[in-house]
Amino acid sequence: MHSLSLATYLALKEVWRNRGRFLLVSLVIALITLLVLFIAALGEGLGTNNREYLSQVDGQLVVFQEKADFIVSASRMNQSTLRAVRRVEGVAAAGPISTSTTAILLPADEVLKVSMLGVEAGSPGTPAIVAGRSFLSATAREVIIDQRVLERSEIKLGDVITIRSTQGTEDEFYDLKVVGTTIGQAYLFQPSIFVTPSVWEQVRPKAEAELNNTIPAINVIIVRLSDPAGVEQVQQNLLNQVSNIQVADLEKTIQNIPGYSAQQGTVQTQGFFTLLIGILVIGGFFQIQILQKVPQIGVLKAIGASNLVVGAAAILQIMIVTAIGVAIGGFLTFLLSLGFPPTVPITFNGTASALAIVALLAIGPFGGLVSVFYAVKIEPLKALRLS
């Protein structure tokens, strides 16, 4: 206990006496903290904007067209497949999802790009309504909009929005009444709007050859099971009883979103190398620090200070400087996050941020290990040039 008290006193005394020098190092650590936290938030934000809708659908399995490679946009099925899926044993409910992109016309000739999803009211795939109501009928020109649409425009519940859609080679405009709002339903980096399948087929962008289509196409079918524990059995039943399909769970569907895995891998690699840079910076600074005070360490050992005291003082000093830097960096990150517009895909996840902070606190002692070992091995006589 006495050794620890002495080590704490020495560490705090030196940090205070050379506070300018140590403050500069803490500011460097603060900048590294800022970068690491924003990389973590960017990765979470990009992933959320890509997978958010699919990760929250009320189902356990996703049915694709055969040879679609579990990619939503590459799958295309018809109504007979949906009816066949609903007849399979173990399927409690099945809902079609049709996807496309469109644009909402805003004042001052501005447009808001959105993902337009065709869903059946009450079926799996329909988002939870937080305000308003769902569709009155399958043909009603009504729309449910995501909260992000509200944040990026002045649209509100009860308004009529105008959709611009390319039909063949001409732009057509469709009016839809906002009857409900939902939250957390981004899809493919865009806020989402939801319409019934028949309305989706009418207003979605079409090529010249599709202009006469009236029956809505289906990209994927979300399946809710009677018993969620029987996923494997129902999956096999679907493959055996319904032709020309593939079946995957939600996790596999999300991982197969184009670019999702590569994107997350890139962001995680950036975070790793940022932490590595932090280790090198901290390690280099404290190594120089130890080299500059070799004679002082020699005096301490000559008057009886043990290796435990010297090593503990060095580690405590590193931990103090690192903690101050991480605290400053965390506070700066919080301040900067308050000013980000809703269009920037930054999402601070509590778990991810906590893990990043723990990693940042750990890189200090880890980066300074070399300097601690060097301090412990210093011999008093050699340090004082008496040998």
Summarize the SSE layout with pairings.
Blueprint: H1 2-17, H2 19-55, E1 61-65, H3 79-86, E2 91-106, E3 110-119, E4 131-132, E5 142-146, H4 147-151, E6 160-167, E7 170-182, E8 192-195, H5 197-203, E9 220-225, H6 231-241, E10 245-249, H7 250-255, H8 260-292, H9 294-302, H10 307-337, H11 350-367, H12 369-377, H13 380-383
Parallel strand pairs: 3-8, 5-7
Antiparallel strand pairs: 1-9, 1-10, 2-3, 2-6, 2-9, 4-7, 5-8, 6-7
Structural features:
10 strands, 387 residues, single chain, 2 domains
Query: Pairing-aware structural class of the strands and helices?
Result: alpha+beta
Strand line-up of the largest beta sheet:
2-3-8-5-7-6
Number of helices: 13
Q: Assign a percent range to the helix content.
A: 40-55%
Characterize the overall form.
elongated
Along the chain, the helix and strand elements come as: HHEHEEEEHEEEHEHEHHHHHHH
Question: What's the β-strand tally?
Answer: 10
The fraction of residues in strands falls at 15-25%
The N- to C-terminal Cα distance equals: 33 Å
Give start-end ranges of low-pLDDT stretches: none
- Global mean pLDDT: 83
Model description:
- The protein is an alpha+beta fold and 387 residues long.
- It folds into two domains: 2-50 and 261-383, no CATH class; 67-243, no CATH class.
- The chain has helices at 2-17, 19-55, 79-86, 147-151, 197-203, 231-241, 250-255, 260-292, 294-302, 307-337, 350-367, 369-377, 380-383, and strands at 61-65, 91-106, 110-119, 131-132, 142-146, 160-167, 170-182, 192-195, 220-225, 245-249.
- The chain has a six-stranded mixed beta barrel with strand order 2-3-8-5-7-6.
- A hairpin with a 3-residue loop joins strand 2 (91-106) and strand 3.
- Helix 8 runs parallel beside helix 11.
- The chain is elongated, with a radius of gyration of 30 Å.
- The model has no long low-confidence stretch (mean pLDDT 83).
